[in-house]
Every structure is written in C-alpha cells, then in structure tokens.
Input
Amino acid sequence: MPSIKELRLICQNSETSPNWRSQSLEGRINRVFSIYLTWVFIHLPFTPNQITIFGTSVYLVGAGFFLKHQYWWNLAGVGMIILSFLLDAVDGELARYRKMTAGGGVGGAYVEPVSHDVQYAFVFLPIGIGATLATNNLLPLIAGFIATSTKLLFRLLEFRYNNLVRFWSEREGQTYGVIKEKKDTPATFSYFIFRNLFTGTGMIFPLLTSVLLQHVEWFLYFYALGFFALWVYLFRKQIRRINDKLKPQ
Output
C-alpha cells in the first residue's frame, strides 16, 4: 500500500491531475486533507461515481440545514458543505489511483459535472427560504432565486456556445471531441477572482464569513449581483466572438 506521500504523487501530481493553479484557495486546502480520505476509500469497495453521489448528498443535506436559519445550524451546514468538497476531491483521486482516468470516463466527463449543477441549483434557495421565513423579508428569497437562476444560465451559455463551436467545427470538417488537450490555466487577475469567489469551493469563504457575522443574507445579495454580472459579461463576450466569426473573410 503506497504511503501518503506516494499517494500525493499518484493522485494529485500526475499528468491527469487538475492543475493546481486552476483551483481555488479553498480547493487547494482541500487537497491537503482529502488524500487521507482517499487512503481510507482505497480500502473500501466504493467506486468514484458512488463517492460523487455520496458527496452530493452530503452537500444537499448541508444546504438544507440553512432552512433553520439559526447560527449553529448554519455553521453545521458550512461544515457539511466543506466535507462534501473533500469527497469531491476524493472521487478524482481514487479514480487516478485505480487508473480509471485514461481516455476520460463517464465519471469525470458527465457524473461529476452534473453533480456540480445539482449543487448550484440548490445551495442558494434553502438559504434564501430560511432567511425569509425567519425575518418575513422577501429580499433574501428573491436574491437566492436570482443567484441560482443566473448561475445556471451562465453554465447554459457555456453549453450553447460550445454546441455552436461544435457545429462550426463539424461543418469545416474538424473534430470537436468531449476530451480536449489540456490548456494553460489563465494567469490573469480576473481569472483569479473568478476561481476564488465564483466557483463551488470559492464560495466557501464568503459563506463562512457571512455565517460568522450572522448575516447570511449578505452571501445571497453578493452572488445575486455577481452571477448576474457574470452572465451579462459572458453573453456580450460570446456575441462579439460570434459576430467576428460571421464576418466575411
């Protein structure tokens, strides 16, 4: 059985491992501890996809804790969500240990992205519902709805544009596959902000801060505005790219 140090090389620093620069700060912290859970799961008869499903369930339970809108319930909800992110790291590490990542797979290519969509779809609404029921103020619920819908619309924009690129590639006789070559991770400040504030793991620190300050509604207001702004930005960016593509050569 490999040591923890050897497991880190196999599961976190191999050619198929995620680029460390592409991960949020919280995601990097997760990797410090996730390898110990991976060591445990190596000894158990679980598949990476089963761990993904289990981690998503833990996430949803944690989000559900916010329905109580009480300090300790909210703090426990943050703890459950952090645990789910540890499990989210474990599924990929276990897959790399078992050499299940060569050529892609249904887990990394489909099951895990779907689990992320489920998480985005349900994290804001329980927080908004709990805050609204406790304060009789509709603003948290409205903000939760806006944050949820604009985040999912942001992902839909990505899918729509990728489908259009796929259509153009096929029309030009090129191959546009699901698994593409690795690209260099952007080193821009805007990408750094995006990774550390607007990804699943990136939202943990703002959520924890708002819970500790006992103003969890601030978390909803921030992401209602933030994801709406990101959606507008991406839409305009894609429109410019499409117009450039359609210009006569």
Observations:
- The chain has a mean pLDDT of 87.
- DSSP finds nine helices and no strands in the chain.
- The first helix runs from residue 4 to 11.
